[in-house]
């Protein structure tokens, strides 16, 4: 003779109940993550605005036949017999900092080369260097303007 004791159905932890609890827990977690993402999105704080105007000093600091990198502005000021102009020192390929060498302007990341006019000579870059605006103030100081991108 065997004794069989039936437990009430309400005390059993069935597979169906387990799957329902797991599903609800997963949906609750996903909902919490979504709400957190929305809150982060709407509370985003932008950084300080990038400076777009640089006083470079007197015009005499840029003698003829000179190439002067301006690190703070990420620019290069070139003074040739044809005139004085500024180029962006950011490679149009991936934005690396252009360096001046005896061969012209070179991107150290992927070896794109540019002449002193900013024209592409070779390399993976498909565009020339961007020209920047230079102005001479009333007291003969050179001012560089970088248009916001």
Question: Explain this structure to me?
Answer:
The chain folds into two domains: 14-42; 53-145, Rieske [2Fe-2S] iron-sulphur domain (Rieske Iron-sulfur Protein, 3-layer Sandwich), CATH 2.102.10.10. Helix content is 19%, strand content 30%. It contains one helix and ten strands. The longest helix has 28 residues, at 15-42. The N and C termini lie far apart (88 Å).
Number of folding domains?
Answer: 2
Q: Report the CATH superfamily of the largest domain.
A: Rieske [2Fe-2S] iron-sulphur domain
Classification by helices and strands: alpha+beta
Taken in chain order, the helices and strands follow as: HEEEEEEEEEE
Chain oligomer state: single chain
Using brief descriptors, characterize the structure shown.
149 residues; alpha+beta; Rieske Iron-sulfur Protein; 2 domains; six-stranded antiparallel sheet; four-stranded antiparallel sheet; 1 helix; elongated
Secondary structure blueprint with pairings:
Layout: H1 15-42, E1 53-58, E2 66-70, E3 75-80, E4 83-88, E5 99-101, E6 104-106, E7 113-114, E8 120-122, E9 131-136, E10 141-145
Antiparallel strand pairs: 1-10, 2-3, 3-4, 4-9, 5-6, 6-7, 7-8, 9-10
